[in-house]
Design goal:
Length: 553
């Protein structure tokens, strides 16, 4: 029997759009504005392009759209260096375009979540430009981390912290003082001990809430507060410690008071707005601190994203996540890809243990098969799920971009992240033909592979075996099955080695992560499978790297 698909028509406005707890089981689609759709043929995606493609997202079956930054920015780090938090960068449009996008999304039953970047600004932000121009003693320098250097003439950085992008986390200005930047030098860190910083961001929240956005994804949510005195870390390989050890510049307890203040503002607004934390922490228990009842609503589950396609490892992180979230009453979140990591089709095409930025294509057929199975597993788990643009097309990472076209700032700095994030940011294909497969009439800012025509939305639409139709079917089933979505537990079932099997009410999910087919019970009516499944009598033969959904109803 071939792959099963749930019969579906274009999705109506999701009922959960009217629920006060819609976010507990929402499927949220990440749009990277540069690479989604280009309306004016300049090779760069924009807000109007996104607006014209909203019906596609409604029909895909997602509940909300998260937009990566589109604010006014010199684009030193693809918009995560913000010069003006209340303006749209001209490459993406203007505030009227943002307003139209928000209104159209609401009319289609979609919510809009925008990125907020509170850890750092651009070095072209008015505060920072004035702080540098006014020199030592300027009150504006207190809104950032300016310090005198060490050494006889202040020629050494104030401490030994390293930038996430490589090199020291300090840059010296002409008057001799140094400023802190955990990322690129063009991204100076705010000093959240200064009251003006908190006042400004509370005002920024209100600005966008008044515009009608439904929430905020908080970039580097774990980084706002630094340890008192900015103490030396002592390690010369700091980047490898990120996400694993306690760091004096990440996951400090003081961040939680900031978010309690923000939550008070959000709760003043109707419509059940939400906060989502990008918080890299050493454990899921530390992540749970960000989603206590008076703080944020969701936090990305990076432990799950970085787990190998292995039944034992997956079960471990699923159990730990559900156990950590249960005491604080927050939903678990599940994610496989985003704009900062190698797409999971390529991660799963390579041997485990290579991390989340991979330079080799691996076995593409194997990677796609595992990615499809991993998607059905993720969408079967209790809580909310995130989908990164293009993963519904089965796009691989582009691992062979020429050096001269790369734009990731980490690529140009030594000893930092690998700097290969451009590979997951290549514009997505919409049509079989055209200079950019329908992305826009003027080519694309990063070159697309020559074989992407068959991966386009046009090519996959209507093909029952395509990855796009698998996603559409999975999201339709998820909406229709009362036991899918929100919740905080699974009932594990006996299963062969290498297989995950669990029940949620009348729903059963089986995921075979092994290299051989296995025989399991046929738990009921087959709803959906990521690959070909053979049923005979009361048994089912589940191939390697395949996930199956059943209902016992």
């Amino acid at each position: 029997m071939s792959q099963q698909h749930y019969a579906t028509a274009p999705a109506p406005i999701p009922a959960k759009a009217q629920r006060s707890d819609w976010w507990r089981d929402a499927v949220i689609y990440q749009v990277y504005p540069r690479s989604f759709a280009d309306s004016n043929a300049d090779g760069m995606g924009d807000l109007e392009g996104i607006r014209t493609r909203l019906p596609y997202l409604r029909d895909l079956g997602v509940d909300a759209v998260w937009l990566s930054p589109f604010y006014a920015s010199p684009q030193a780090d693809a918009g995560y260096d913000v010069a003006d938090y209340r303006a749209v960068d001209p490459m993406f449009g203007n505030l009227l375009d943002a307003d139209a996008l928000i209104r159209d999304a609401r009319g289609l039953g979609l919510r809009i979540i925008v990125d907020l970047v509170p850890n750092h600004s651009s070095d072209q932000h008015e505060w920072f430009k004035r702080a540098v121009a006014e020199g030592p003693g300027s009150p504006l320098r207190d809104r950032y981390h300016f310090r005198p250097g060490k050494g006889e003439n202040g020629e050494l950085p104030p401490n030994d912290w390293e930038s996430i992008f490589g090199g020291p986390a300090w840059t010296r200005v002409e008057d001799g003082e140094w400023y802190l930047h955990l990322f690129a030098p063009e991204q100076p860190d705010f000093n959240w001990e200064h009251p003006a910083v908190g006042d400004e961001f509370r005002s920024i929240l209100r600005f966008w809430l008044d515009m009608g956005v439904d929430g905020f994804r908080i970039d580097v949510a774990h980084g706002l507060v630094k340890a008192e005195g900015l103490p030396d870390l002592g390690s010369h390989d700091q980047v490898k410690l990120l996400g694993n050890d306690v760091m004096p510049f990440f996951d400090q307890d003081g961040v939680h008071e900031i978010y309690r203040q923000w939550r008070l503002i959000l709760d003043e607004y109707s419509g059940d707005r939400i906060f989502v934390a990008e918080a890299w922490t050493p454990t899921v228990e530390r992540t749970a601190n960000y989603v206590r009842p008076d703080e944020l609503h969701q936090a990305f589950n990076f432990q799950y994203l970085s787990t190998a396609w292995d039944a034992e490892e997956l079960r471990g992180v699923i159990d730990r996540t559900l156990e950590a979230m249960r005491p604080v009453g927050a939903p678990a979140t599940w994610v496989l890809s985003n704009h900062d990591v190698t797409r999971h089709t390529t991660r799963f095409a390579n041997p485990p243990g290579l991390g989340t930025q991979i330079r080799t294509a691996g076995d593409r057929a194997l990677g796609l098969r595992r990615a499809r199975a991993a998607t059905l597993l993720m969408l079967a788990l209790p809580g909310s799920a995130y989908v990164y643009q293009g993963e519904e097309l089965g796009l691989p990472d582009v691992v062979d971009l020429p050096d001269e076209v790369r734009q990731d700032p980490a690529y140009f700095r030594g000893a930092g992240q690998d700097g290969f994030r451009d590979g997951c940011r290549v514009p997505i294909p919409w049509t079989r033909e055209g200079s950019s497969y329908g992305f826009g009439a003027g080519g694309s800012w990063l070159p697309q592979p020559s074989d992407w025509a068959d991966l386009s939305v046009e090519a996959q639409t209507g093909d029952p075996d395509s990855t796009l139709e698998l996603y559409r079917s999975a999201l339709a089933v998820r909406r229709s099955q009362p036991d899918l979505g929100a919740g905080d537990a699974v009932e594990w079932l006996r299963a062969p080695e290498g297989v995950l099997a669990f029940r949620r009410g009348e729903f059963v999910c089986v995921a075979n992560t092994g290299t051989q087919s296995v025989t399991t019970p046929a738990y009921g009516r087959l709803l959906l499978a990521s690959g070909e499944v053979a049923e005979a009598d009361r048994d089912a033969k589940v191939p390697a790297d395949t996930t199956v959904w059943w209902t016992t109803a």
